[in-house]
Amino acid sequence: MPTNSHDKVPVITLERLATYLRYLVDLQQDNVETISSSEVEEQTGINAAQFRKDLSYFGEFGKPGVGYNVADLHSRIAYILKLDKEQRVILVGAGNLGSALVGYPGLKEHRFNVVAVYDNNVAKIGRNLWDFEIMDFGRIVETNALHNARIAIVAVPRSAAQAVTDKLIEVGIKAILNFAPTVLRVPEHVVVRNVSFIQELAVLSYHLSHEDEENKSSSKSPKQTS
Amino acid sequence: MPTNSHDKVPVITLERLATYLRYLVDLQQDNVETISSSEVEEQTGINAAQFRKDLSYFGEFGKPGVGYNVADLHSRIAYILKLDKEQRVILVGAGNLGSALVGYPGLKEHRFNVVAVYDNNVAKIGRNLWDFEIMDFGRIVETNALHNARIAIVAVPRSAAQAVTDKLIEVGIKAILNFAPTVLRVPEHVVVRNVSFIQELAVLSYHLSHEDEENKSSSKSPKQTS
DNA sequence: TAGATTGTTAATCGATTAACAATC
DNA sequence: TAGATTGTTAATCGATTAACAATC
């Protein structure tokens, strides 16, 4: 049962799948037709065996002795991540960050379709954010019954985040991308991913503060996370 | 050699440290004075032993039979992550995202001090972004010699990201928070963290697409990442 | 065919967590 | 003191990667 069996694909494999996708876009722009796993390793620093292992959760993608067809691999990974079909998304919180997120062109490129923008600030409700009229979050029960979005982006202040989340779950949201700097409590059937700008800076800050004490070590490949 | 020995603290521990910090802020706002590791587990879903283990890399923080003093733990974690002292940060890319990032109040709260904003678009150079005059990225050699920032936020289009990065390394940047959807190649002494909004949505999308096939399982604690 | 590279197994490595002696 | 909870050890679990038979 290959090509999509769901049983326990590690989340970190999914994350790398999304990374491969980005990299494959680069390759397509450079008109590269075929790559081998060892070329992936050279160029991204991700171990060749790991690349093959990640793919193996979903079936067979390459030709022994030849490698992987770039266009084919791209479309198959997009399929696995369901980036090949429209996913409806709502944004809650029409502040600076929410505005930047909704305005990001990569959303459309990856078939994420923002269907509504919500806020609870009466000064904002009714005004426009890009192409969207900002809706009253207090009325999400009615409006999401129409839109039927399953993914929500939460870009509200920490103090509002849990209450917003509770409401989102009520209206059928199953996946939340949380930008508020707090741990959201959700029922078990709801998936949350947290994005914390400050947390990332904190990790960088830690490494910085120690760099002067460090002696040179010897690896060569790019050292990156996420 | 406790309280800051650097030898191989897992990055994931550092990430959780930043999570603990957020949580401790919540507790302080609620005037909670003491917590035990099992309360942390209840409220955040992070295993109590893991919490204790994470802290153990840096010394002793609690009192057996009592628990952890919230204010003390907060300040010690802030110290470890060097969030107790100013870190100078530059932003490259004065677009929507860059604007939202620099405007984020959490930066100041955590002592990240944005010292300059750069762009290469002549239409933007000289204009203001919040309190900052947008500087010509072409002149960063001179300007960062003054500011001496070590952390850079890269919020430029994919096509510009690698060239920008190369230049940043030239001017002494040691840590990069990358928002461009591409893998940056950096020398071994430079740390990169990638933030990819689309990647996060892709992981959510994957989970969504399968949810209808899934039968209920039985865990209860919050299932979150990052 | 010979050479290259896959998909997968098994060994290794590292992170999570249960268990418990130390101690407040 | 008795009860609670720490810090840490050791067992478990899971992810990474080397190695190689299969195969293009």
Biggest protein-protein interface? A-B, 80 and 80 residues
Number of strands of chain A: 10
Under CATH at level 1, the class of the largest domain in chain A stands as: Alpha Beta
General shape of chain A: elongated
Q: Helix coverage percent of residues of chain A?
A: 40-55%
CATH architecture of the largest domain in chain A: 3-Layer(aba) Sandwich
Mean pLDDT of chain A: 90
What is the CATH topology of the largest domain in chain A? Rossmann fold
Describe how the helices and strands are arranged.
2 copies of one chain form a homodimer.
Chain A: H1 11-29, E1 34-35, H2 37-44, H3 48-56, E2 68-69, H4 70-80, E3 87-92, H5 96-102, H6 106-109, E4 112-119, E5 128-129, E6 132-136, H7 140-147, E7 151-154, H8 158-170, E8 175-178, E9 191-194, H9 197-211, E10 224-225
Parallel strand pairs in A: 3-4, 3-7, 4-6, 7-8, 8-9
Antiparallel strand pairs in A: 1-2, 5-6
Helix pairs in contact in A: 1-4, 2-3
Chain A binds a DNA duplex (24 and 24 nucleotides) through residues 10, 12-13, 36-38, 47-50, 52-53, 55-56, 60-68.
